[in-house]
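User: Here's a protein and a ligand (glutamine). What would the complex look like?
Assistant: Let me lay out the input and then the predicted complex.
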Amino acid sequence: MKRLDIVKTREAIASGTHVRDIVNQYIETIDDKNPEFNIVVRDSRQEALNHAENVQKKILDGTAGKLAGVVFGIKDVISEKDKIVSCASKMLGNFESVYDATVIERLKAEDAILLSRLNMDEFAMGSSTENSIYGPTKNPHDPSCVTGGSSGGSAASVAAGFSLASLGSDTGGSIRQPASYCGVVGLKPSYGRVSRYGLVAYASSFDSIGPLTNSVEDAATILGVIAGRDDNDGSSSFEPVPNYNAAVNLGAKGLRIGVPEEYFGEGLDDEIRDIITARLKQFENDGATLVPIHLPNMQYAIATYYVLATAEASSNLARFDGVRYGHRADQKRVREELKQEEKTLRDALKMAEGKNKIVVENELNTLDTPLARLYKESRAEGFGTEVKRRIMLGTYVLSAGYYDAYYGKAQRIRRLIKNDFESVFNDVDVIVSPTAPTTAFKLGENQDDPIKMYLNDIYTISANLAGICGISVPAGTHSNGLPVGIQFMGAAFDEASILRASRIVELQ
Ligand code: GLN
């Protein structure tokens, strides 16, 4: 189906298309293509169709909200009341949320229609949407390739016409990188711009919720709806929300674009470099000024991120203990196994002598309590490999003796990276870069090489470290047929400028 935007949807409704028919078109596309692409993990079509009837009535009454008839898919990490929010993990496979995230409340208040829950990397950890209990999502442009991640389902849903827009979350690039790989617009707002209430936390000082859309205008509209202070999230900002739609069409004249040398060096695909460079020439022709800049601490961004984000993750994920909610190991089996272990040790103790006896005694004394063993088993069964890797890394960098060397040092580098950006934004309105060093890679290609996987976020991660905003917009097509994204980063709370720059790319 053709990819609509919000304005065209409004026009269609105004000229008599029933909201139910709009929803049905998306449902048909899902039924047709989801078996191949694995984008939607659950849909609530009946509820969406019922809602469509209500929205239609409101449209006729003239009381409908800004997003009337706009069909959304939601990354399965954002809570919707009475719906499963699995985070693509066995740990939360059957967990139903008891409340709506603030972003969901705000979408509903504007009459958006929430149709589906979208695939992702488990707990938003990954760059490919391959780390999921539901299996990998495939790229709508080439099903042998990944979608990027962790919001791969959100990017693919928009690209494949499963929803008009979607929400994703971005901790180190998870909205922008999949947007680039799938050829859609993906906006990561500044830290604190959009409430995180109801987002299952990965790394709380990095996480942002943002829209993935077919157009820059749509991103501006949706950001306008979801942004703003929320008393349920103490880190959400009181900064007033400007009219983003007005900012979108300010044009290139006078726009100062910082071009950081560090973002165009080794590791960047040559064709991507050429595509971005050609765009920058056009910007100059359109009246923008290019300013060479430096972000000297960018080289430390990936290492800093993986120390800090895993530290926060290890703490955030400690709540999943199998007792209060989430996956619980079979208690009876766990108790039996523990009893058996104890018996084996007691038998061994009878035979043991000398030093060996001390060893066995020690093992007996330190044997898990049934509760501790239940925690361990539940977590061992509930979490996937990548999540476990990060919990271990995070607890390591936070442990006594290593804290200063890793966590403390990384915090100090984070400050330097933030300072670099702040001083650059005195001279420029936006910073430009590729979104990712390559186009979408093949499924399975980076699965056994975490470091290679982590390097995908080299251009996106520093925006999260600095708390600033970033956006990826389609900039062209690679000779391999896959989309290429261009990224703009803006000062904290200056989403208006990156939306403005992005719109120029669309018009070029
Ligand atoms: N790919 C990065 C990671 O794996 C970023 C993920 C994200 O932004 N949620 O941590």
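Summary: The chain has a mean pLDDT of 97.
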